[in-house]
Design brief:
Layout (H helix, E strand, L loop, with lengths): L3 E4 L17 E2 L8 H15 L2 E6 L4 H14 L4 E6 L3 H14 L6 H12 L3 E6 L24 E6 L3 E4 L14 E6 L5 H11 L4 E3 L6 H5 L4 E7 L3 H9 L3 E3 L6 E3 L24 H4 L6
Parallel strand pairs: 1-2, 1-3, 3-4, 8-9
Antiparallel strand pairs: 5-6, 5-10, 6-7, 8-10, 11-12
Amino acid sequence: MPIAIAVTSADLVLPPTDQHTPGAHVLSPPERQDFADALTEFSDLLGSHGHVVAVHPATAPLPYIQRLHAVRAMLETDRIALLPSALPPLGTAVLVRQLRQLSTCDFAPGVLGASARLLAHYVYAGALLASGNRLHRVPVPLPARNGGGRGGPCAVLAGPAPQVVRADGDAALAGPQFATTLTYAPGALGSEWVTGRLAKQWQVQGLHPVPVPAESAAWWGTGKLVEFAAAIPDVSLLYQMVSQMRQESCHWCGLTLIGDRCAFCSAPVNPPERAPRAIGTGRRKALAPGAG
């Protein structure tokens, strides 16, 4: 069985782009499940899959996040990875789909869990907004219109690098320099700008319409939007990206990982040991003349 991918919302489980991509387990929220049942839910996942990679938005309600950590602590296991995502809702869902694709590959659990941070850097997630006046999660100022003022439609890129441009202007959002497909979710706004102008500028190889996630309006500050995320769709390319990373053994739990931190036990990778310094070096330089 592949490693289990778990999520905190059904909106994070997008339709697969191929017939080999498995689904994801949608965890029950605290208000619909008592703690004993939550323990049973995770125990069953561990029993069926061995390891669980659970992805949740960084903006998830605090009680939900606390419940996840409490369950992990009570089970006393390092086989559950809790991965917060700072991407917008649709970007997080696209990242989850990539993890679902990779979960069928021969990666060790620690490598799969740590790959989430790597893959997130290659997801171009943003939205077309009717107005960015209530946009607070992307740390860039809104550009002024030619006639003055900051109202009107704008296109926002939340990651990898934040950017905002006027939708009716000449400036373009910085797009990926590699082959992608564009997943988009129309809210209460027409999607022609995204499926036409943006798709052409980014030279995407396919378009995938999906329902708008329930959390998108709150994340972007308006329901008049079209959320989008461009990402690598080919599992063979994703596999190549991850497999080329240097692998380490976690000094705490022993799992194989990539990057600088274990996704399962959160232990950082030990820095390279410094070469031993010769005895007495440096000490004499600190002494005043004649002090010896």
